[in-house]
C-alpha cells in the first residue's frame, strides 16, 4: 500500500510536467507526444481517482496541493477529452474535490470552479471555437457562459427524454437504449449538482420498452445514496420510479430507516414518526408493489425479534403515516385493498382501516366486537378468504394499533361483565401462536384479574402491593411470558384511568419495574399510550399529566 502511494506521487510529478509542456506549446511535436501518451495518462487518471475517492476535499489538497492545476490542464486539452474514457474519469476526479457542505468562502469558490470546469467538459466535444468566439463577442465570459450552457443542455436532454417516453413504440423517434445507458453513466458523478436534477428525474421516469433494465445500476445506486443523504431532492414520482425499477435501492432505503431508528432514543414515537415521514417510504408505499416490499421487511424484523414491542410500535406508526399519505394522494383508493393485503379478509381489512377518531365513541365497543368476530373466524375457522393463518391475521391486526390497544381500556372502563369477544381479542393480540385451549385459559385468567381490579376500584383504600397480589404479579412466573405482559399492561391502564389509581401509580410502577427489560417495556407502553391519546383526542388532563411524569422519571433511571 505504501509502495502504491510512492508510485502515485512519482507518476503525479511526471504527468504534471508533461501537461505543462503540452499546455505551453501547440506544435505538431507536442500534439504527437500527447497522442502517444494518452493511454498511459488515462491509466494514471484511473489510479488517481481510486486514491481521491477515499479522501475528503481537505485531505486531497494536503496530499496533492496542485491537483486543481493538473486537472484543469487535462480538462482544457482536447486530445485528452476525446480519448476513450478520459473525459468520464476526469469528471469523477473533479467531483471528488467538491465540498458537500462548504464551511468557508474558499470551499464555496472551489465548488464554483469545479462546476465551471465540469460545464466546460460537457460542452467541449459539442461546440467548436467559433461558438466560443461568438459568445465572447457578445460579452459573455466562459465563467458566465458554461453554467448556463450546462443548464440548457440538461433541460434539452430532459425534454428529449420526456418525448421519448411519450413516443412509446414509435421506434423512429425513440432514443436508443445505448444512448439512455450512456446518459445514465455520465450522470453518476454529476448527480449532486442542482442543475442536473431535471435530467436525473427524466431518466428515472423514462421507461424503455426493452425486456431488461437499460439504465446503469451505478446510476440508481448513486441517486438513491444522494436521496438518503439529502443531497438532492426529487419529486415523489421520480423516487417511486427509482424504487420500482431498482429493488436494491428500496431495500437500502428501508435498511437506512432501520439504522436511524436503532441509533435514536428508544421508545420515542414522535421522533420515530418524524424519521418515517422524512424517509418518503410511507408516500412511496401508496404503490402496492413498494408497499409489499416494505411490508415484507417489517414482517422479517418482527419475526427476527420475536414480536418486540418496539418493532410493533414502529409498524403501527408507519401504518398511520402510510394511511395519511394514501388519503392525501387520493380520497378513493386507486388500487383495491386486495393488492395491499392479498392474504387477509377484505371485510376485516375494511374495518381495521377505519381510524378510531372517525368512529363515534359510542360505537367503539361495537366495532371492537365486530373486529373480534372477523378475526376469530379467520384464525379459528379459516373463513372469509383468509389464507395466511393466525400470524397473517395477527400481523394485520397489530398494524392498526389504534384498535388493538383500545381493548384493555374498554374492558377496564366498563362495570359490566367483560365481553368474551374483547377477552379473546386481548388474548390473541398478546399471544397469536396460542391454540384454542391455551387462549381460553388466558381469557379466564384475564377475566379474573379484571374482576379483582374492578372490585378494588370501588375500594376506599388502595395499595400497590394489594394490586400486585390481586393481579398475580407477585408469583414466580416468567415476567417475559405474553400473559404476564398482558396483565402488567392491564395494571398500568388501571392506575392511569381508575379514580384512586393515581395515588399509587408510582408505587405500582416501582414494584413492576424490577428489571431493566421491564422498565423499557413500561416506558414504551407509556409513550405509546400518550401518542395514541394525542392522536385520538381522548387524553384526560389528569391521566395525561401522570403518564408524562412517570415517563420522564423512568427515562432518567435508564
UniProtKB/TrEMBL annotation:
GO biological-process terms attached to the record: interstrand cross-link repair
Domain of life according to the entry: Eukaryota
Localization per Swiss-Prot or TrEMBL: Nucleus
A cellular component annotation (GO) from this entry: Fanconi anaemia nuclear complex
Alphabetized UniProt keyword annotations: Cytoplasm, DNA damage, DNA repair, Nucleus
Cited function: DNA repair protein that may operate in a postreplication repair or a cell cycle checkpoint function. May be implicated in interstrand DNA cross-link repair and in the maintenance of normal chromosome stability. Upon IFNG induction, may facilitate STAT1 activation by recruiting STAT1 to IFNGR1.
Binding partners and assembly: Belongs to the multisubunit FA complex composed of FANCA, FANCB, FANCC, FANCE, FANCF, FANCG, FANCL/PHF9 and FANCM. This complex may also include HSP70.
PANTHER family for this protein: FANCONI ANEMIA GROUP C PROTEIN, FANCONI ANEMIA GROUP C PROTEIN FANCC
Protein name per its UniProtKB record: Fanconi anemia group C protein homolog
Organism encoding this protein: Macaca mulatta
Amino acid at each position: 500500500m505504501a509502495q502504491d502511494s510512492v508510485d502515485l506521487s512519482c507518476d503525479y510529478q511526471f504527468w504534471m510536467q508533461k501537461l505543462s509542456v503540452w499546455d505551453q506549446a501547440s506544435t505538431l511535436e507536442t500534439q504527437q507526444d500527447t497522442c502517444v501518451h494518452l493511454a498511459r495518462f488515462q491509466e494514471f487518471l484511473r489510479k488517481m481517482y481510486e486514491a481521491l475517492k477515499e479522501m475528503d476535499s481537505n485531505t486531497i489538497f494536503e496530499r496533492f496541493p496542485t491537483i486543481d492545476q493538473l486537472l484543469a490542464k487535462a480538462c482544457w486539452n482536447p486530445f485528452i477529452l476525446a480519448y476513450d474514457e478520459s473525459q468520464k474519469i476526469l469528471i469523477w476526479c473533479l467531483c471528488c474535490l467538491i465540498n458537500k457542505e462548504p464551511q468557508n468562502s474558499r470551499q464555496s469558490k472551489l465548488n464554483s470552479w469545479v462546476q465551471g470546469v465540469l460545464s466546460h467538459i460537457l460542452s467541449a466535444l459539442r461546440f467548436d471555437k467559433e461558438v466560443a468566439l461568438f459568445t465572447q463577442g457578445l460579452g459573455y465570459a466562459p465563467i458566465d457562459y458554461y453554467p448556463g450552457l450546462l443548464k440548457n443542455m440538461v433541460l434539452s436532454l430532459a425534454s428529449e427524454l420526456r418525448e421519448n417516453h411519450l413516443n412509446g413504440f414509435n421506434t423512429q423517434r425513440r432514443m436508443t437504449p445505448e444512448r439512455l445507458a450512456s446518459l445514465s453513466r455520465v450522470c453518476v458523478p454529476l448527480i449532486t449538482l442542482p442543475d442536473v436534477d431535471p435530467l436525473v428525474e427524466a431518466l428515472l421516469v423514462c421507461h424503455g420498452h426493452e425486456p431488461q433494465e437499460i439504465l446503469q445500476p451505478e446510476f440508481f445506486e448513486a441517486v438513491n445514496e444522494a436521496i438518503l443523504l439529502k443531497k438532492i431532492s426529487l419529486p415523489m414520482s421520480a423516487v417511486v420510479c427509482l424504487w420500482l425499477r431498482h429493488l436494491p435501492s428500496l431495500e437500502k432505503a428501508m435498511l437506512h430507516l432501520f439504522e436511524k431508528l436503532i441509533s435514536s432514543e428508544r421508545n420515542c414515537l414522535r421522533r420515530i414518526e418524524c424519521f418515517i415521514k422524512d424517509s418518503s417510504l410511507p408516500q412511496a408505499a401508496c404503490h402496492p408493489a413498494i408497499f409489499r416490499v416494505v411490508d415484507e421487511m417489517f414482517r422479517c424484523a418482527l419475526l427476527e425479534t420475536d414480536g418486540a414491542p418496539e418493532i410493533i410500535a414502529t409498524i403501527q406508526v408507519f401504518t398511520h403515516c402510510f394511511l395519511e399519505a394514501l388519503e392525501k394522494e387520493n380520497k378513493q383508493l386507486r388500487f383495491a385493498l386486495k393488492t395491499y393485503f392479498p392474504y387477509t379478509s377484505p371485510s376485516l381489512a375494511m374495518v381495521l382501516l377505519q381510524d378510531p377518531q372517525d368512529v363515534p365513541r359510542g360505537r367503539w365497543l361495537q366495532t371492537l366486537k365486530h373486529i373480534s368476530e372477523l378475526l376469530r373466524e379467520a384464525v379459528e375457522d379459516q373463513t372469509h378468504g383468509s389464507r395466511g393463518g393466525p400470524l397473517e391475521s395477527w400481523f394485520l391486526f397489530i398494524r392498526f394499533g389504534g384498535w388493538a390497544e383500545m381493548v384493555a381500556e374498554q374492558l377496564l372502563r366498563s362495570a359490566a361483565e367483560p365481553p368474551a369477544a374483547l377477552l379473546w381479542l386481548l388474548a390473541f393480540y398478546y399471544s397469536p401462536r396460542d391454540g384454542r385451549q391455551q387462549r381460553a385459559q388466558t381469557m379466564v385468567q384475564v377475566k379474573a384479574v379484571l374482576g379483582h381490579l374492578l372490585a378494588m376500584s370501588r375500594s376506599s383504600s388502595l395499595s400497590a402491593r394489594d394490586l400486585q397480589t390481586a393481579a398475580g404479579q407477585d408469583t414466580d412466573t416468567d415476567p417475559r411470558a405474553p400473559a404476564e405482559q398482558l396483565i402488567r399492561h392491564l395494571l398500568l391502564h388501571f392506575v392511569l384511568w381508575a379514580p384512586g389509581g393515581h395515588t399509587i401509580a408510582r408505587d405500582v410502577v416501582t414494584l413492576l419495574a424490577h428489571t431493566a427489560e421491564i422498565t423499557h417495556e413500561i416506558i414504551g407502553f407509556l409513550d405509546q399510550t400518550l401518542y395514541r391519546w394525542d392522536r385520538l383526542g381522548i387524553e384526560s388532563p389528569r391521566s395525561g399529566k401522570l403518564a408524562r411524569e412517570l415517563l420522564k422519571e423512568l427515562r432518567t433511571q435508564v
